[in-house]
Design a protein that fits this description.
Residues 47-285 form the Endonuclease/exonuclease/phosphatase domain. This protein is of the alpha+beta class. It is built from 5 helices and 15 strands.
């Protein structure tokens, strides 16, 4: 007959079992607790960069096609940009970068056009073989929806640029990339100003909060020393905040162009956590990157 276990031993065994059960419950609570109580913070990095990819627009000394494609990919792979607003790009380069980044990336592109004195409109082409149309666009690691061009006043004779918007549904953020007309853009009316109307149209196209918008706006910040400050509407610096805007009253920022001026901007109504200015070495414009909290 098997020996019976004494009462003290059985009591000790029961106590050990209870301790083990309590430890297991405690471990389960520790593991499960944070997952329930600490929500993940969602963030989005958006970049804007004028590639200076249209060589006939005084860009022949800013790097070759391969260098520009590498720089654009770097903004995504190292810079962490999940959305990129790109100006002075060639359609072929945009598509090549999208393919290199992977099947999850998406593009939206609008060609620049030229309107002559007779009212005829033609697409501006890049000079290199296989580069296609010159224009501006959006590269996104997430699908883009509700892609549309924003109607704006454009030169009667000359290059017509534009504003392009899309929704990144994965984070519920409306993004808009703009390339505004610099002074003298209208060959028939050199004194006409277009940036004021174009800025108003850009601001009217975005929501108050869940947006990131900007691009090459071809104008300095609206501080008192800028003679062109009057083209700015109030919303970009009041309703929204610019990437490099240090305080609510600030109207300056780091230079983004080789001339020493700030021409490139990113505005948002979301909380921003970082702003970077990056020299890609492949353009006369530096890239601007903003990180915002979307959760």
């Amino acid at each position: 007959m098997l020996p019976t276990t004494s009462r003290p031993v059985r009591a000790a065994a029961a106590a050990l079992a209870l301790l083990a059960l309590a430890a297991a419950v405690a471990l389960t609570q520790c593991a499960a607790g944070p997952a329930r109580s600490t929500p993940s913070v969602r963030a989005l990095t958006v970049a804007t960069w004028n590639m200076c990819g249209v060589r006939q627009w005084h860009c022949e000394h800013t790097g070759d096609r391969d260098a520009k494609q590498r720089a654009l990919k770097w903004l995504a792979t190292t810079g962490g940009a999940r959305v990129m607003l790109v100006q002075e790009a060639c359609a072929g380069d945009m598509e090549a970068v999208r393919e290199d980044l992977g099947r999850s990336w998406h593009t939206a592109f609008r060609a620049y056009t030229w309107r002559d004195g007779g009212g005829r409109i033609a697409t501006v082409r890049c000079a290199g073989r296989g580069q296609g149309a010159a224009g501006h666009g959006i590269l996104s690691a997430e699908p883009l929806s509700d892609v549309r061009s924003v109607p704006t006043q454009q030169p009667t004779v000359g290059v017509r640029r534009g504003v392009l918007c899309a929704t990144v549904a994965a984070v519920d953020v409306r993004v808009c990339g703009a390339h505004l007309s610099p002074p003298g853009s209208d060959r028939a009316h050199s004194g006409w100003e277009f940036r004021d109307d174009q800025l108003r149209a850009l601001v009217a196209a975005v929501p108050a909060r869940r947006t990131v918008y900007g691009g090459d706006l071809n104008v300095g910040p609206p501080h008192e020393r800028n003679p062109d400050a009057g083209v700015w509407p109030a919303a970009p610096y009041r309703t929204h905040r610019e990437c490099d805007q240090a305080t609510a009253a600030a109207r300056t920022g780091r230079a983004t162009h080789a001339s020493g001026h700030k021409l490139d901007y990113l505005f948002t109504g979301l909380p921003k956590s970082r702003c970077q200015v990056r020299d890609t070495g492949a353009s006369d414009h530096r890239a601007l990157l903003i990180r915002v909290r979307t959760g």
